[in-house]
Amino acid sequence: MLERTIAQLSGREIEQEDSSSQEGAQDGAILDLSHESANNEQQGWEVVIDSNHAPAAIPASYISEISATSPLNNAQPVQDRQPDMISRNITSVQNAAALFDFYRDTLDQFLYGILRDCKTLSDVRRASPLLTDAVCTVSALHSKSENYPAYRAAFMQQVSTQMFSKRKTMNDVRGLCIGAFWLSDISWSLMGLGKKISLLGRSSLINFHSCVHC
Amino acid sequence: MSETFHDLSFVNDFLTSSYACEDDRRLASQLELWSISYRTYKTFGLDTESALPQTYMADFRRICIALDTWRVDWEEKFASDSYDSGYTQHGVELHFDFAKLYLCSHAYRGLLNGQASRTSSDLGLEEFAANAVNAAESILKTITSNQQIQSLLNALPVYFDTMIAFAVVFLLKAIAKPQQGLRIDRNRTIALLEQVSQTLADITNHMRREHLLCGISQSIQKLIKKASDAMLAESQQTQQPPPSNVPPDHDFGWLVGPDDTPFFDNFDLTVFPQDFNFDFMDVSRVG
Prior knowledge:
The structure holds two protein chains of two kinds. Helix content of chain A is 47%, strand content 5%. Chain A is mostly helical. In chain A, helix 5 packs antiparallel against helix 6 and helix 5 (129-142) runs parallel beside helix 7. The radius of gyration of chain A is 21 Å and the shape is elongated. In chain A, 35% of the residues are buried. Chain B is 56% helix and 0% strand. In chain B, helix 6 runs parallel beside helix 9 (186-204). Chain B is globular, with a radius of gyration of 20 Å. Residues 257-287 of chain B have low confidence and may be disordered.
């Protein structure tokens, strides 16, 4: 009976959430995280049960952020991603394309082809604004672009914005790696953020080491 | 990642698969090297002021052997590399020298501030001290003579720039206070450093001022000029060319920082100000 209850609490029935589960949440806040939304925003905390693991666990693993689909989440989603520097009119598409070509043809080999999946500027822009800004900034540094200071400032603003974001992708980490490899004055900060992403919270699922080559 | 390298033991198996490419092989070589360098860090720590106990000699040798093995293995694997016009082979040599310099520079621990009561020959450190000097010289000779590497310096990661600076400063310290039993040709070393200074000046002349290598180049130029002037002044005082392995009785006091703290330890490789123009003269006591 207890086992079935646990399975019900942590299993497939969560998608049929109704007032009864909300009532349960108010009483003991026992909710499920076995199906996590990709767009969850941090609004609070909830106690979770995962029936796939034995009772022995890291104590804090039973506490998790309230997901977007949770009935406890009443907040508006927070905008935590800036558009890339092209969308912000810091550089033109033509300039960015030239910078991307330079990075792809000259620099990417030293980072073991980290842009392997991205063949064009459009691919990079679709992948991640942080990655786009990193590529443009590093290229500007090495191609003697007059706009390097502006690109660098835009990249740092992009990184700062994402510091507290809960939505991270492998392409974001790739951008951090690119910046850390070549931007000497902020290298350690970028590596620290990248490592944080790989170790903390649900973002650890992206597996830091696979971001370099996937 | 390098701390838990044993988690990546599948790498060798992956490299034999049809999915592996040249970039994977290069990355795998770096992972192996990082794990060896991590052993250096874990074994010897960060306290470069403490003298090296005799008990560390076995670790010294084991890590040296691991580095030599790494070099042989990957030079062989990349021997027929046509992927990037031979950069990878030169890269193997450079990375080997970087790691060897980092490891063997520990042979100088505690000797510059007089902490070590025994001579290097008592500890058997002469061999490693010589290896450190050879590694530093090899790095700088590659920079001055290898045109392919010179053409790539604008694109290589910051690690290369910092290791070039490390090699320069290490050699300056080594000739300023040579280890007992280890002969270093000061004239030849200064000539090499002057060559490095000129090479870096030529290369960075076409780079953005914000690039790390530009700041390093400017600082190295000042440092080496001061060393050259000190040697010239000494030779004028004695009215004859100084012997190449003269004992430490010369005006290199400016290389030693305040309160006799070794200058090199003031060069924090982990901190880079936005406008990197590290003026070595600010942290050195002018003799």
